[in-house]
Every structure is written in structure tokens, then in C-alpha cells.
């Protein structure tokens, strides 16, 4: 395991350095995770208790993840770039009992809100800084006092292991429940879709605060026993190429946004000086996930990196890769591929009521080849989510007579290859992050100048989409560049840069339904010059 190659940090959240960390053998994480499991027991955190992480990619994160699972507690990772509002909301919804974070992140995002989280009993601070932070304890001191052997209690395959939050278009984020049996799917799909083999050097660039970084950045490669490369630094084209070359990476799993950023740094025309400065001959497979992969990126990978990019599809709810371009098959650029072995997928037709045509657990009519429809999956794979925490109604609504309706629109060609079209709802995918418009709108409307807000995703050639907010101001206030900058800053402080809007437009006449809901569909149509569709529910219509 190579935890901190390239530009590194001496501690989670500390300033980047330039000296690579040494290679870490599997035995050392085994001892440290045992210590952490024992430390949790000392604190009284046990089976089923929720342990949250708010960390960057540092060794302590991996210790926490695996030690929590050993202790049969439930691990819930949070993206460290989240703002205070999303962090507080998820800690509360997830019944957080323990949180592992740094002093800087705790001060900035949790400390002032601790009073609203009575169930959060333990905050473990990684690195120095517990002085002046009441109610916190030192992560290092707890580990140093704990034994480095731990007997893992008996665990049922159906016991809750992971809690991943995913955004919805309205209401609160959804806590998708995953169980210990999910590891079976992580192992199998890493072999089928990512072609992991003994001796591989594997790099997944996804942040472990998201499901990809957890399932395929930590769990899947470790159960395969391969070498894992972890880079703490932010994206930098030259450093990424250097990591691929110097670490002799064989399998690289990344996001379409990252590939598009590399394309900007390395155009297809010209001598390709940047990638040719490094030896990338060890690379055997490049795969991507998190958002649609444009065909140009697939071809660019072949021309510039020497390998096409293998796209695949899955969701937080599925827990593992469902549809993929196999390593052994030719790629159809733009397609997400075909279902993995054991995955039953289809595109059912819908009736007049908009529901999928399913009777007695059987899909009675499917879309013709190349017709768009909602992707449906037959439940039963080991990593399938088992519920939305505290929200059975929301969970039940995701199923129709024995089929899981993904909410993603796809088309299937005559040969059974799937092509992603878009979300059936309003969730925005920006740089691989799922962003709920309601969450952004709610934060903006907390500003005293804002009366109403509507949020959409505007297409962007690099990020896929960027968040754009339309804001209606309170009486007596007018738009200005200063107010626009103030609102952008306010949203970034509350939500974090990954979730906050990049653009704000002022509109005193936001389109609303008769019930008062801002019509994001109409905002999107106006912004992109698309047909407005049925306006009969619009406020003021006949």
C-alpha cells in the first residue's frame, strides 16, 4: 500500500510537502485498525453505532474506515469540502455517535453547531489541536493506549456496515444503507469491470468521502490484495502524470471531469509533450465513472495515453458497478457498456400513469432499441442498498413490483449496450458530485436579501454541469455585482465550494407552479433554449 505518493501532507489537512511517504505494508494497517477498533470499544462505541469521518485522504482515514468495520460499527464518510450546513445535516440525520476529523475542520464546520447534535458524544481529532477544543480527544493518544490485536465479533452479512448520503431534488439528503455482504460485490466487480489481478498497482482518484472512493478506493483493492496508490493533493496534471509513471500504475480509475481537465492540459494535436515526459507503459486499463463520459475522451485516451477509457455505470444505491465496458471487449465510445454477470437490467415502457409496465414481478413491455426510458434493475446483488435511513416511504417509492427504478434515463441499442441519457429528476452532477438543488436553494434563502431561489445545472465542458442559481430579491433591494459576489461567498461558506453555485442570475419573476414551487424545468428550458413543455401548472396560467 502506497498511501501518500507525490505531493504529500505530513498530517491530514496540513500543508502539502514534496517528499514521498514510504511504502506501507498490509501488516501496519492491520495493527492500526485493530488499535482503532479497541479505542472505539473503550469509548463505548459498539455494534451498529455510527462513526463519521470528515477527513482528507490521509492514513488516519483508512485506519478509521477499516477499524470501524472491524468493530461492527457503521462507517459514514463525509466529503471534507462540504460546508457547515451539509455536515451538520448529515451528522444529525445519520445519528452520529462519533466523528473523526481534524482541528481545523472541526472548528470551521462543526464546533459552533455541536449543541444541535446531542447524539454526537465523541469527536476524535487527528493530529495536534485538541487544546482549546472542549469535548474532543486526541486520535493519536487513543490509538497509542490501545492494544494492536482485536478479535472481530461475529457479523451477519445483512448487518449495516456503511451509510452513504446522496442528494435528492427535494427534501433532505437520503442515507443509503449498505451491509457487510456488499464486500462480495466489491470484490467480484473489481475483477470483472476493473480487471484487478495479483501484482497490480491501482490508483482510484475518487475522494473516499463519496461512494466510489470508498467502494473502489478502499474496500475493493484491499480485498484483492493489490498495491493501492493514494494521493493527498488536489488535481495537478503534471503531478498526476508523474504518479502514473513513477508508481508504475497498472489500473487507473478516475472521473470524466478529471480526464477532460487532462485533455485541456494535453491537446490531441501536437507533440503531447506532457504525457510523453513520463513512462506510462505499465498502464493496462483506464476506467471512469461518476458522470457521462463523452466519446471524445475515450478516443483521446487511446490517442494520447495509448489506451481507450472504459466507462461504467452505477449509483450510490447500487453500491457497486452494474454496467461496464469490459477489458476484453471493444469499446463503443459514449456507451456505459453492458450489465455485469448476474445483473439483470432492462428499460421498461411506461403506462399512461407514468409507471413502469411491470406485472407480477415481470416487465411486460420494454422500450424498442435506441428508445429512451428509465433504467430498471432486478434487486438481489450483495451491495444493493437495503433502505434509506429513517425513510421507508422514500425507499419503497424506488421500487415497482420487484424492480428497482434507478431514476436514470438510458437507451439500449440492439446489441444490448446501454447509453446514459440523463437523470429523470433534477439532481445535478457536477465534477462527479451529486448535488440536490433543494439543498442549495435552502442555503441561499437563508441570506436576508433573498426571497426565493431556483437552482439548475448548466452544461459545462469540463465539470459536466455547474450549479447556476436564479435569485429573487426581497422588496426594496436591487441586483448589483457586489450583491452577486456576496451571495456567492455566502453560499460557499455554508455549502462548500463543491456544492455552492458558480453563477447567480437575478430574476424577480421566477416561474412557479400554482402550489408555489419554483419550476426548475422551465428555468432549465429558458437557460438552454429548450422547449418549455406543458405550462398548465404554471402560476397564473388559465
Please give a structural write-up.
Residues 23-389 form the AMP-dependent synthetase/ligase domain. One of its GO terms (molecular function) is acetate-CoA ligase activity. Residues 1-10 have a biased composition (Basic residues). Keywords: Acetylation, ATP-binding, Ligase, Nucleotide-binding. This is acetate--CoA ligase. The chain is of the alpha/beta class and 542 residues long. The chain has four domains: 27-155, 3-Layer(aba) Sandwich (Rossmann fold); 180-343, ANL, N-terminal domain (Rossmann fold, 3-Layer(aba) Sandwich), CATH 3.40.50; 344-380 and 391-425, Luciferase, domain 3 (Roll); 428-528, ANL, C-terminal domain (GMP Synthetase, Chain A, domain 3, 2-Layer Sandwich), CATH 3.30.300. The protein is built from 15 helices and 26 strands. The strands form seven sheets. It has a seven-stranded mixed sheet with strand order 9-8-10-11-12-13-14. A hairpin with a 5-residue loop joins strand 20 and strand 21 (418-423). Helix 1 (27-43) crosses helix 2 (59-70) and helix 6 crosses helix 7 (211-224). The chain starts with 26 loop residues before the first helix and ends in a 14-residue tail after the last helix. Mean pLDDT is 88; it is low at 3-11 and 13-19.
